Amino acid sequence: MTPEDTLLGKSEFFLCLARAFAIPDSPDALALLRDVLPDDLGELAPACDYEIGDALIDYRASIGAIPDQTRLLVVYSRLFLVPGDRHPSLNTGTYLDGTVAGGSVTAMETCYRRCGLEKDERIQDLPDHLSIQLELVARLFAAESQARITGAAPPPIAAGEFLASFVARWIGPFRADLEEAGHRFKLADHPYRHLARMLEGAVRAEAAVNPIEAAPAPALDPEIARLRSQLAGKPITEEDLAIIRARLEADGLSSDHVAIPVDDRDRIMGLSTMTPPTPPSHRRASVV
């Protein structure tokens, strides 16, 4: 198998897992997850040097024990969709940020745009949904293969770079969450736990073969750093307030609140300082 074929195999492997975590609401969902997916993953994994043997055996047994489509939907809904109960999150940015729609979501959106992708307004999922991330990884592996074949420029982000920056950081907590949720919701040995194990195995294999560190946070602009040092802690003068009022009014915005002295603003407007809660332990990321 050529390197180009291996990259295509990796693309197909991650695409299979992306679709496996989608809502199983099509009439043939159970048949595909039970009869087709295991064979596809079992064929692709050796070609990609992904060790998923034990997890795949356990997945076959687990998905084979689900009697019908209704039961599959119950398992999926209980794990991921039922409101009110703490459950594993397919919006995996919560494992990185401790909250929904945090900074990692913005970082992922930046990656998508760099790759020429824009949000489809018909899709309601946030950019950090597991399936969206894995579909991007599949797309990047396919683009890397095509670039090697044609001599074209590679994609602006390597698949390994995206995996290291995001997926490798949330897959451990996510897999652990699925294992714990199976016990808590009395779902026995549900198949999604084993899908996560296979994903974790593939991600670790990629990290071992292509150890790419996550991109560091961008350096602070020197001019911003200078201004912060110069102005931080400096009281706001009436001249500063006049400039702020003028700019607000020029944009057609109210400036009444600017007339309130800064030191008294919270008290006069009835505001109080709040401290955000500490994220639950199961939402905190661990670095691979």
Describe the structure.
With about 290 residues, the protein is mainly alpha-helical. The longest helix has 26 residues, at about 160-185. It folds into two domains: about 5-220, TorD-like, CATH 1.10.3480.10; about 220-270, no CATH class. It has helices at about 5-20, 30-50, 55-65, 70-80, 95, 105-115, 130-150, 160-185, 190-210, 220-230, 240-250, 265-270. The mean pLDDT is about 85.
What structural class is derived from the secondary structure elements? mainly alpha
According to CATH, the fold-level topology of the largest domain is: TorD-like
Q: What characteristic shape results from the CA principal axes? A: globular
What gyration radius follows from the Cα positions, in whole Å? 24 Å
Our measurement of the CA-to-CA distance between the termini, rounded to an integer number of angstroms, reads 29 Å
Strand content: under 5%
- Average pLDDT taken over every residue: 84
CATH class assignment of the largest domain: Mainly Alpha
Give the SSE string.
HHHHHHHHHHHH
Proportion of residues in helical segments: 55-70%
* Count of discrete domains: 2
The description of the largest β-sheet is: none
Q: Output the CATH homologous superfamily of the largest domain.
A: TorD-like
